[in-house]
Amino acid sequence: MKPRNYSSEGVVLARRNFGEADRILVVFSKHFGKLSLLAKGVRKPKSKKRGHIEIFSQFRFSANRGKGLDIITEVEIINSQQNLRKDLKKVAVCYFLMEAVAKVTHDEERNLNLYQLIIDSINKLQETNNLKGLRKDYIYKLLTSLGYWPIEKVMSDPDKELEKVIERKLYSIRVGRKILEKAS
């Protein structure tokens, strides 16, 4: 169980608006796994946290346990991934990476190897042009690290195997495939 006040670093997997000025973030943290956190007042124009908690940004945060959602109290950016955001194809692949982790993992299950896989994959994505290869490699590593796929077995259709695990289709798979097909 998390302490009342805690700190960690994490990557924003998803976000959605909540109320007039708040936002709910799904974060994969280094020390606590996947968390749903409430960022109060972040949608206000003068909010200091506003630019630090964009999707696939890596940041340090402090939070307080709440009755429903934990509340973010402090944020410090580590890497905003600005170079990545300039390329639409890479952004689409990164959305896929984040959605895959969000759907496959459970709340508050710490997995340091998975956290490192996310960070390493985002960094590789900024440097590579082999986006299809990166996606396939990421799905394979994701499913093997979580125990859904044997380590030595070859994966012929990674997207299909991922959809079997989460038992539904991912929106970003369809969008990402179309963008990558146009690039080829």
TrEMBL record:
Residues of the DNA replication/recombination mediator RecO N-terminal domain: 5-80
Gene from which this protein is expressed: recO
Species, as recorded: Candidatus Woesebacteria bacterium GW2011_GWB1_38_8
GO cellular component term, pick one: bacterial nucleoid
Keywords attached to this entry: DNA damage, DNA recombination, DNA repair
Protein name: DNA repair protein RecO
One biological process term in Gene Ontology: DNA recombination
Entry function: Involved in DNA repair and RecF pathway recombination.
Keyword Zinc: no
